[in-house]
Design goal:
This protein is mostly helical and about 200 residues long. It has nine helices and two strands. Helix 5 runs antiparallel to helix 6. The longest helix is centred in the middle third of the chain and has 36 residues.
Length: about 200
């Protein structure tokens, strides 16, 4: 009579390691490599921080005289301006993080195609759209001194162009898809650009 080694029975609620690995492998991942997400966020925050002197000069120039008279103390006035700008920078940094998070979700749920940059680095459509919406505007303001870009029509035309044209970078992937999915693809890219314009 042959004998077999007795294997300890798995405890209730414990998933076998192989099943856990399979489940992890099946989880959809963002088309964009993690280092690119981090790099994009650091670039956006860096541009915002670099614009602090520019923003301070703009606020000083645009602040109504009535507000200055109400404060009375120039040092207190400067403190109030600096505090308001720092709060604004923090809020804009949080908004940028939300936009990038939304883009990552869309890359997992809507359109998962990716473009390779090197051997291990890839980026997806919604990463491209978000970066094109957030980085050039801040960079343009920093270089040219035009602080309120949203006051100009050309800025919104640029965002509309980004939303409509960015999907064509992935045309080889989506050109064979059903029309409904292509329409969803363009709707989400345009919607994402509209969201960045509204904030």
């Amino acid at each position: 009579m042959s004998t077999q080694d007795q294997q300890p029975a798995p405890e209730a609620g414990d998933a076998p390691p192989i099943e856990e690995e399979a489940a992890a492998a099946e989880r959809p991942r963002s088309a964009t490599s993690r280092p690119l997400w981090l790099l994009a966020y650091l670039v956006i925050v860096g541009l915002l921080v670099a614009r602090i002197p520019q923003l301070q000069a703009y606020v000083d120039q645009e602040m109504p005289q009535e507000s200055l008279d109400a404060i009375g103390d120039p040092e207190l006035e400067q403190l109030a301006v600096r505090s308001a700008i720092m709060i604004g920078i923090v809020l804009l940094s949080l908004v940028a993080a939300l936009y990038l998070s939304l883009a990552a979700v869309l890359e997992r749920k809507v359109f998962t195609a990716r473009i390779a940059v090197g051997k291990r680095t890839t980026f997806g459509l919604y990463f491209l759209v978000t970066v094109l919406c957030l980085v050039p505007g801040n960079l343009f303001s920093l270089v040219t001194g035009v602080v309120a870009v949203r006051e100009h029509l050309w800025y919104f035309l640029y965002l509309g162009l980004v939303g409509a044209a960015a999907p064509f970078a992935f045309r080889s992937t989506w050109k064979g898809l059903p029309g409904r999915k292509i329409a969803l693809l363009f709707a989400t890219t345009i919607g994402l650009t509209a969201l960045t314009a509204a904030a």
